[in-house]
Amino acid sequence: MKEILLYSIIFVFVVSISVTSIFAQSQYEIPDWIRNNASWWVEGNIDDKAFVGGIQFLIKEGLIQIPETSQSTTGDGSQEIPAWVKNNADWWSQGLIPDADFLKGIQFLVENGIIAV
What pTM was computed for the model? Predict the structure, then answer.
């Protein structure tokens, strides 16, 4: 009887962790086709302004969701994008890092007023 109880507790624990993990991953999932845009940006096929404008549009339309973020009121969108954000976009476009890591860069751009939403 104790063995059944122990297995039941372990089962419930594993299931709750799995459900939480799946929810956390899907909460900020990005459509795969957006990887192409990131790749084009990294390769220089589109400029910073086009990339930022595209990401801004996708956030406003709800195709990309970022965690609750306070936006800078001093940024006018003219700041330079840090190299690490472009590196993240490159790695993400190749599938080397998860959506959540790519979104940290996008969140940074919003927080610093480079992307206005």
Answer: 0.69
